[in-house]
Structure formats: structure tokens, C-alpha cells
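Suppose you are handed only these lines of text.
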Amino acid sequence: MSETPSSARLWATPAGIRLGPLDLIADGAARNFVLQMRAGRFHGFALRRGDRVHGYVDRCPHMGVPLAQHLDRYLTPDGDLVLCSWHGALFDPETGLCVGGPCAGQRLTPWPLAVVDGAMVTAAPSITP
Ligand code: FES
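From them, the structure of the protein bound to FE2/S2 (inorganic) cluster can be written out as follows.
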């Protein structure tokens, strides 16, 4: 008998999940990821900056909703900042710190990612703040 995956929302992923090649994301762009696991479903997004990726849980600290109302539209038009499409909160893509808008000073929740042999892989949380 197969086990039905839970519909619970997850806020983190185990380390070591391969998301695909880095080239899934154009340099300077962002992409949504939804991972269905037995324990539930995780929603996150990744930002590519050259050979690095930054990942965040897709949840705005202002009201707890996903940031993008259109698929993969997580950035300001110039690509410099992460933008929440609901009330305009702006976030630093490197740190997740809200630098403007209704949740200034709060942060996106990091989703640790690494690039291994040209592929994006979920990583263990960093122990340094
Ligand atoms: S829900 Fe993101 S700015 Fe309000």
C-alpha cells in the first residue's frame, strides 16, 4: 500500500536534495520551487548571482503569504532587490533583510542552497548568524 503525501506546509527541507542544474535560472533572475515530500509541501525560491544561489522560504514576513503573484516574479524590474508583490516590501537578495516597506527590519527565512558540480542542492542550515 502506498503512503499518501501530507498536504501540510513545510518551512524547511532536508539537505542533499538536487533541484537541477544552475542553468535553470538565468544569471540575475529568480525561480520558484515547490518540493512535495512525504511530510508535506515546501514552497521556496532561489536567486542566481553568477555561480551562487540564494534561497528563501516563499513567505513574506509582513503577512505570511507567498511573495509573488506571478510565477517567478520575485525581483524588482532592475533585478536589484526582492519585491513582495502584495504591499511592496523590498528585501536585500544576499541577506533577506527587509530594507523598505511594511516589514522593514524583518527578514525572509533562509532556505540554504549550494551549487555542487553545476547543480543546485539543498544545504544544511548555517550555524553562523
Ligand atoms: S504581504 Fe508582503 S509586503 Fe505585505
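What can we learn from it? DSSP finds no helices and ten strands in the chain. The chain has one domain: 5-13+21-122.
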